[in-house]
Design a protein that fits this description.
By secondary structure, the protein is of the alpha/beta class. The chain has a single domain, classed as Nucleotidyltransferase, domain 5 (2-Layer Sandwich). The chain has seven helices and eight strands. The strands form two sheets. A six-stranded mixed β-sheet has the order 5-4-1-2-3-8, with helices on both faces. A two-stranded antiparallel ribbon has the order 6-7. Helix 5 links the parallel strand 4 and strand 5. Helix 1 packs antiparallel against helix 3 and helix 4 crosses helix 5.
Length: about 230
Amino acid sequence: MYLMYIDDSGSVTDKKCNHCVLAGFAVYETKPYWIEQALNGIIDEYLPAYPDVELHGSPMHSGHKEWRGISQNIRENIIMAILDLIAADRSIRLFASVIAKSATPNIDISGDLFTQVASRFDMFLGRIYKRNKNPQRGIAIFDKSTSELTIQRLSHIFTTTGHQWGKRLNNFAEVPLFLDSKMSRSIQMADLIAYSIFRHFEYKDSKYFSIIQNCFDTDGKDIHGLHMLV
């Protein structure tokens, strides 16, 4: 089974925000334990006095909330170390949808973001079966702050009657799960991925995105893991 950890960046309702991102990563079910160990190791190296600090992109970048008082150098080193870890591990597949509000005045942005990410993860699982005759199921795991009712409703529709392009999601083992991000390093890493993508599109700041830009799910030369409507 594959697990896909997902978080968002950029608010649909914030008029000052021009882009919305839903993004995360998929790994085989045994991988999250090792991700947690690796992330805890990075925290222990750069910030040993705060072993339980939550990795959250915006506060880390700006030095707000629990990251207040921690030097910019340490904050940047931690972000870069985590993104480097992602870039170095070929078993981590990234998936993301980026939508500019100006490009989509008449659509349900939250619904379209989920449709894009979920359908691309489903196609990834389908390719594994076709190539290796190895049927794999997937579960999407979100931060609890995400719109749970909307996503659960859409997931049920997509697996029974199909999404807006007429296809059903055939490879999901269960409806999406929702976790408290404080309890999951993997959800926290998904947050950093989403924030890195958001900064690239919203502020033209590619410092973080450039590290992970080649990590999206691909099939040969075709990039399937990144959807952009900007």
